[in-house]
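Contributing new complexes? Match this layout with zinc ion.
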Amino acid sequence: MIKKIIIALSTILLLTACEQTQEAETGNNWYDALPRESWSRFEKIDVGDNWFEVYKLTDNTYAIYEPYQWQEAISYLLIGGEKALLVDTLQGISDLKAVVDQLTSLPVIVINTHTHYDHTSGNHQFETIYGLDNPYTAENAKGHKNSEIGSSMTMNTIWKNLPDGFNISNYESKPFEIDHFVADGEIIDLGGREIEIAYIPGHSPDSIILVDKQNRMMLTGDSFYPAPIYVYSETSSFEDYFMASQIMFGYQNDVDYLLPGHNETMQPASYLNRLRQATMDILNPTTPFAQGQDVRSYDFGDFSIIVKDPLDFGID
Ligand SMILES: [Zn+2]
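Output block (do not edit by hand):
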């Protein structure tokens, strides 16, 4: 497992903001265990789209999952009494708006857990986008050309037929415009359903979590999922991520489930305590790690954290 991560790192470090989060390999192919068995716990909704899989998590919460591309990105649709909130918009491969239109007729607000392109590439399809007033966000909102991200979208990263009209050779992420800047601590009221925003940079400079206390769930984006978590890119900060894990832990009594941005959903909130402990363990020089090229990988069982080497903590 560790060897696999290190081999993967040498390739992945070449890609811009790549989110390769696989650890489900059980056979010869990276996709042999996909779609992951854990999704069968939820009711699958037919939306007439062969690329996305849609699951009903609760009466008013849907997950839109992309199991046929190795990032296994997940978007969430939170339905309130008056509005709906679409958290992340995946990779721009199939028609996400057509799917969302089938799930709700309410006005839809888009917000991103952070602006890596695998979470924002459907933004351009929607009218109302909320986001941070942050230079990193502004840069990513300009979109990404094929020359930047095309290497992440090849036939080697896909194991099912692509939707009609999607051309892999000119894949790009279209620009989008933010209509409303959100602040740390802001509440988005969807009408009888309030979603709290907490700013937690670390994985990226513009990472947020969204907390739905009424439904006891936290949308974690890439700040937590049960797989290798990336805190080693040029724009990541372990010092910030350490604080992020503390802030997330602060909600432990408010939530029962974590809804991550990749791989699997509805993970137990007990991970919040384990994540906080993990970041503290990383600060302990006696904690073992696997050495990669300019990175360290710390293994915590069903998740790991990849950081820079030397560790970027306490460095001015
Ligand atoms: Zn990311």
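Reviewers usually confirm one structural detail per submission. For this one: The longest strand covers residues 53-58.
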